[in-house]
Specification:
extended; 59% helix; 362 residues; 4 strands; 13 helices; mainly alpha; two-stranded antiparallel ribbon
């Protein structure tokens, strides 16, 4: 019987699909599909595979032209109308609070969330999104706060009688921080019935927020390649003055327990009794703590949270390409700064060696 020859299977790599090219209807220049935004749910740009035939450069030019004339928010609405994408004031507000800069690309990437499926600019018109006031937008964002954050805000407002942080130019995170801190002060004995103390704790809360901002600036400066000692000194001096003012207000109004003249207050509270039992060595009062980073339960919760976030995002290949490009640019920049710092360190070490040798010769 003649042997049957074996057929070797070869796996050839599939050639990469060539990217389509389109002509921008604004600048009339032919460009690759990566230079055009994709409106996933549009019913207009079907012929071009839902690529909006206004290139990214022309959209940016529209933003640059209309922003000085009508403001950034209105310029974005005009750009989104051309792109047939929805506008949501809460999404826009969240981006500008979380980033020092804003562009259309940042907003478009946010629209990959599952909650924006099947949404076009028509939904913006129908839902009355363009007529929402700043207060309505703020209330909508605050409705998504955690239960404890809402309780602290409502409690603080009920004690003060009004929203003390309205129209103060605060971001959502700043308002949340201030209400959580103010709620703690409002729970202090003697605050509710003293209007002067209420204004004092409001001032203390705002000063604490300013100290927090100063800490952020100080940390940013310290993380820089060449920290500015003069700026660090000015920031530290300003923070010291704020802390002194806070301590002075607390002392004048007997707010802090360190300055409270009513020494009997707080002796019979539950927290005070727990502190006394802990200091006396009562073992059963101590909290059973565990390491969050090594706890299996906490790891499972973190994994579930991350998986839920990923399931709500519908990234396409262009989004991944942009993110990888941005990450690559950041890595190259950091490597360049690291090389420069190492070279400066090497030169400095050589100078120190030369100085030491010169001293020995003398």
């Amino acid at each position: 019987m003649p042997s049957i020859p074996r057929v070797l299977k070869t796996t050839a790599k599939k050639p990469k699909a060539e990217k389509e090219k389109f002509t921008c209807m604004c600048c009339m220049i032919e460009k690759s599909e990566d230079n055009f935004y994709k409106s996933q749910w549009t019913k207009v740009w079907n012929h071009s595979g839902r690529r909006v035939l206004f290139c990214k450069d022309c959209i940016d030019k529209i933003m640059q032209e209309y922003t000085p004339r009508y403001g950034e928010k209105t310029a974005l609405i005009i750009a989104l109308a051309l792109l047939d994408m929805p506008f949501y004031a809460t999404t826009y507000k969240g981006i500008i609070e979380a980033n020092s800069i804003f562009n259309v690309g940042m907003y478009v990437r946010m629209l990959n969330g599952r909650q924006y499926q099947y949404q076009t600019f028509a939904n913006t018109l129908v839902s009355g999104e363009l007529q929402k006031t700043d207060n309505e937008v703020r209330e909508e964002r605050e409705s998504k706060w955690s239960k404890s954050d809402k309780q602290n805000m409502n409690f603080a407002i009920s004690v003060v009688g009004y929203d003390p942080f309205d129209n103060c130019g605060m971001s959502e995170e700043d308002r949340k921080y201030c209400f959580n801190m103010l709620a703690g002060y409002c729970d202090t004995d003697g605050i509710k019935d003293d209007g002067h103390k209420i204004q004092s704790v409001i001032q203390i809360t705002q000063s604490q927020l300013q100290c927090r901002k100063l800490d952020e600036f100080i940390n940013q400066e310290l993380l820089g390649t060449h920290p500015d000692e003069g700026r660090l000194k000015n920031l530290s001096d300003t923070k010291t003055k704020l802390l002194s003012a806070i301590a002075k207000i607390a002392q004048d109004n007997n707010i802090s327990s360190a300055y409270n003249k009513a020494t009997g207050i707080g002796k019979n509270t539950l927290s005070q009794k727990m502190k006394e039992m802990d200091s006396d060595g009562f073992e059963k009062i101590k909290v059973n703590m565990f390491d969050i980073t090594t706890s299996d339960a906490m790891k499972q919760i973190a994994d579930l949270s991350n998986r839920s976030i990923l399931e709500q995002l519908t990234w396409d290949a262009n989004d991944y390409t942009e993110m990888v490009k941005e990450q690559r640019e950041i890595i190259l920049k950091q490597n360049k700064e690291l090389d420069q710092a190492l070279e400066e360190l090497r030169i400095a070490k050589n100078k120190l060696i030369d100085i030491e040798q010169a001293k020995k010769r003398k």
